[in-house]
What we know:
By secondary structure, the protein is mostly helical. It has helices spanning 8-22, 30-65, 71-80, 82-116, 126-133, 137-148, 156-171, 180-191. It is rod-shaped. It contains eight helices and no strands.
Amino acid sequence: MTMKGKSQRQIRKHILRQVEDTFDLQRLDYKKRVTPLKHAAKLVGVVVAGIVYGLGFGLAYYAWKAGKTDYETFTKFSWIFMVPASVVGAFTYMLNGNRREFRVAKDIFDHIDHVEGHAGILWRYEPILLELCGDDEVVKHVIAVSREGSFKGLEPEDYAKVVHKLHAALSSGEGRSISDEAAEAFERNLAKAGPE
Length: 196
């Protein structure tokens, strides 16, 4: 489908349709998918910290009731056990949160591998991205990684952010317009078998 002679709106709609057909935008919504997982990880951290504190308090209480320690020592230990309970709770939160985020990141990487394949796809949107997003270093980095076909060192959040930034720029009627040169360069990129 040629872009010559089309209005700005038709060009945007065509490219937007191409983006929506190529990328699973809900699957690439990293922040939306990770936020509830972080809240669950916080809850797990608080529960573990409560259990650790409860165990420490219970031991101190038992020692006080059994007559092994006096009341002053019991009160000191009830305050002192807050430190290890907080440390263990924070560590549990971080570990649990990272494990939960890893599943989402792995799912996004699987989607990237499926979409990008060997020839790459996001680099084909380079003229459009550079025109709509300007000199964004993250966009340039993700385009370069897509062109190389090697996703080592790529954060899934960055890839998802670039795709969503492209979708948002195309779907909003405001902002910069797409020049005929960028639209034609995009069409040439789509026709290529792979990066040069």
